[in-house]
């Protein structure tokens, strides 16, 4: 058994236990009144366990793991990547929420920037965990500020929550927008410029 790892100095977790997850899914099937031994469900517990391992893979990664490649391009102005597809799991119901993330930052004066794909990877590190949309948004912003020494960061996430569409209040199509703004992007003019890039 691997030692528990500490992520972002805030979270201590164990390993993904595939057998335990499969046993739990089997129990769940029994609890809902199904027969987990019927042919169609026989492989389901193991399959669901593998799916959860993938869906929650972000629990095994740190933002530092993906923001490794940095260049000094002498570019110290705002960079925005729009419409990064995001799929995460609401921690209240373990149902997906999905939508898009827009990620912008102002690099450190040194011009330390990261590869564009790394911004999408950063989104995934935090999305692939049991989440709430607000925390997902702030964790991305805080990582950019901390790891890239960014002078500013702005993250906007628009998502639809399955827990609001397929159960409970049942309002398909309702979208939730969250934002996190840090550093120089709190300045109203800079923020407005970022928002115009995000919304364009
Ligand atoms: N703020 C926030 N709330 C969320 C998120 N995902 C789900 N929720 C909400 O979490 C709340 C949980 O409320 P509870 O009253 O404990 O659970 P519930 O009885 O299943 O609530 P209903 O969904 O209203 O039926 C619900 O209002 C969800 O809509 C999220 O990312 N952020
Ligand atoms: Zn939910």
Automatic annotation (TrEMBL):
Gene Ontology CC annotation, any one: cytoplasm
GO biological process: one-carbon metabolic process; tetrahydrobiopterin biosynthetic process; tetrahydrofolate biosynthetic process
Enzyme category, top tier: hydrolase
GO molecular function, one term: GTP binding
Keywords associated with the record: GTP-binding, Hydrolase, Metal-binding, Nucleotide-binding, One-carbon metabolism, Zinc
TM regions (residue ranges): none
Residue ranges of domain GTP cyclohydrolase I in the record: 22-198
Protein name: GTP cyclohydrolase 1
Enzyme Commission (EC) number: 3.5.4.16
Subunit structure: Homopolymer.
Short name of any one Pfam family annotated for the protein: GTP_cyclohydroI
The protein's annotated pathway: Cofactor biosynthesis; 7,8-dihydroneopterin triphosphate biosynthesis; 7,8-dihydroneopterin triphosphate from GTP: step 1/1
Gene name linked to the record: folE
Annotated Zn(2+) binding sites: 90, 93, 163
């Amino acid at each position: 058994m691997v030692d528990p790892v500490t992520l972002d100095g805030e979270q201590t977790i164990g390993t993904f236990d595939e057998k335990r997850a499969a046993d739990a899914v089997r129990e769940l099937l029994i609890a809902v009144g199904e027969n987990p031994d019927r042919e169609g469900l026989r492989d389901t517990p193991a399959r669901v366990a593998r799916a959860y391992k993938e869906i929650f893979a972000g629990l095994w990664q740190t933002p530092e793991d993906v923001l490794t490649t940095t260049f000094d391009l002498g570019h110290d102005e705002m960079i925005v990547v729009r419409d990064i597809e995001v799929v995460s799991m609401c921690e209240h119901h373990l149902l997906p929420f999905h939508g898009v993330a827009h990620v912008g930052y102002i690099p450190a004066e040194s011009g330390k920037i990261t590869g564009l794909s790394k911004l999408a990877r950063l989104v995934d590190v935090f999305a692939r965990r049991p989440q709430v949309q607000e925390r997902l948004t702030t964790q991305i912003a805080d990582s950019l500020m901390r790891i890239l020494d960014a002078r500013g960061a702005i993250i906007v996430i628009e998502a639809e929550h399955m827990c609001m569409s397929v159960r409970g209040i049942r309002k398909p199509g309702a979208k939730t927008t969250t934002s996190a703004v840090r550093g120089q992007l709190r300045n109203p003019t800079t923020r407005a410029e970022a928002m115009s890039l995000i919304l364009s």
